[in-house]
Design brief:
Strand content: 35-45%
Number of strands: 15
Strand order of the largest sheet: 1-2-10-7-12-5
Largest sheet: 6 strands, antiparallel
Distance between the termini: 46 Å
Number of helices: 1
């Protein structure tokens, strides 16, 4: 693996990885290879990424937790500007870590990339004034196939950094704020997701 360092099985969850590209810095700035197919294959990854997505969000925006039911997507995520707290939940049937979550902060300065296999719900919270995130997917987006889990599902117990508020029985963000007073901002769709295990009752 010439230009990347890989941390495998983050949080004890099989397949969840952090990829750190080698950054070459000098007085002009820096250069790094953000994706190299040969390096990825040598690291044990064989993904055929077919779609690139980019988001721009303001502080307090929380997106997720999203997944596709019949067209699951593997994702390779990196932050172009700012800082986010990125979260996944293992939804793979038969997985020893089914229902377990893992989260980590990603920043533009670090340049690290979060590799999420198929079969996970995904979401993120913006911690900086502005954050731009870029990610590759190995399956196309199908809006009719999308589903989700409540970001504040008490059964999952995700520890979102800087978030203050009490669960009031739904994914509605009213009553939640960041520690500095910034209100959480969710799409209407994301306020309506149910808890993971509530869906199965």
């Amino acid at each position: 693996m010439g230009q990347i360092k890989v941390d495998y099985n983050l949080g004890g969850i099989e397949g969840l990885c952090l990829i750190t590209p080698q950054k070459h810095e000098d007085a002009r700035g820096y250069f790094m290879e953000t994706y190299h197919a040969i390096d990825m294959k040598e690291a044990g990854f064989d993904y055929d990424f077919v779609q690139d997505n980019q988001t721009r969000s303001t502080k307090g925006v929380l997106r997720g937790l999203h997944y596709q039911i019949h067209h699951p997507q593997a994702k390779l995520i990196r932050v172009l500007r700012g800082e986010i707290f990125d979260v996944v939940v293992d939804l793979r049937q038969g997985s020893e870590t089914y229902g377990k979550w893992y989260g980590r902060c990603l920043t533009a300065d670090q340049g690290q990339q979060f590799l999420i296999p198929r079969g996970f719900a995904h979401g993120f919270l913006v911690l900086s004034d502005i954050a731009e995130m870029f990610y590759k997917c190995d399956a196309f987006y199908h809006p009719e196939d999308e589903s989700g889990i409540a970001w504040n599902d008490p059964d999952l117990g995700i520890q979102w950094p800087q978030v203050c508020g009490e669960y009031a029985g739904s994914a509605d963000a009213r009553g939640y704020r960041l520690a500095d007073g910034t209100p959480l901002i969710l799409s209407e769709k994301d306020t309506k997701w149910k808890g993971l295990f509530a869906e199965k009752r």
